[in-house]
Amino acid sequence: MQHFTAHLHDEEGTAALGAALARALAPGLSVHLHGDLGAGKTALTRALLHAAGHTGTVKSPTYTLSEPYSIQLDGRAVSVIHFDLYRMASAEEFLDAGFREDFNGDNICIVEWPEKAEGVLPPPDLNLFLNVAGHGRDVELQASTALGNSCLQRLKFAPNM
C-alpha cells in the first residue's frame, strides 16, 4: 500500500496539500483525519473543498456533525460529506444519525475524529495524520484499500521547502 510523509512549514503548506488531494479525489473515497485540536484538519478540508470547486463558505461541522458539499469530478456531480465527530458522546450516535448510508460508492467522506465512532464507522481508504511540529505540521498519509492506493498514486504534491 502507498504511504506518503511530508513536513508542512506553514498554513500555506497545509492548503497546498488540500489542493493536491482535491486533484486526486475519486467517488467513494473515505478519508479519516487524525490529529489534535488545532492540527489543521478543518483547514486542510476547507482547502480541499475550495480546490475541488466549492465556492461558498466551508464551515466546521462541529455542532451539526456533518456538512455536505457538491463538486464536479470529471463532469459528474459528486457529494463530499465533511464529518466532525468530536462532540459525539458515543459511537451509537453515528448509527442513530444514519451516517453509515453516506459511505457508498458515490460520495466522498472526510471524517475528523473517526475514533469517536470506532467500531461502527466504515473503514477508511486513506488515513491522514496531522501533527503540530514547531510552526508547521508533519503529515502522513496511509492507503488502506485499492481506492486509497490509487488516490495516493495520483497525488502530485511537493512540500514547501
What would a concise description of this structure say?
24% of the residues lie in helices and 30% in strands.
Structural features, described:
This protein is an alpha/beta fold and 161 residues long. The chain has one domain: Rossmann fold. The protein has 4 helices and 7 strands; from the N terminus they run βαβαββαβββα. It has a 7-stranded mixed β-sheet. A hairpin with a 2-residue loop joins strand 6 and strand 7. The mean pLDDT is 90.
What's the helix and strand layout?
Blueprint: E1 3-8, H1 11-22, E2 30-34, H2 41-51, E3 66-73, E4 76-84, H3 91-96, E5 108-112, E6 126-133, E7 136-143, H4 146-154
Parallel strand pairs: 2-5, 2-6, 4-5
Antiparallel strand pairs: 1-7, 3-4, 6-7
Helix pairs in contact: 1-2
Report on the biggest sheet: 7 strands, mixed
Note the gap between the termini: 26 Å
How many beta strands in the DSSP annotation? 7
Shape: globular
Q: Secondary-structure element order, as H and E?
A: EHEHEEHEEEH
What would you call the structural class? alpha/beta
Number of domains: 1
The CATH class name reads Alpha Beta
The stretches of 5 or more residues where confidence is low (pLDDT under 50) are none
CATH-derived architecture: 3-Layer(aba) Sandwich
Helix proportion range: 10-25%
The percent range for strand residues is: 25-35%
Pfam families: TsaE (PF02367)
Protein name: tRNA threonylcarbamoyladenosine biosynthesis protein TsaE
Main location: cytoplasm
Subcellular location: Cytoplasm
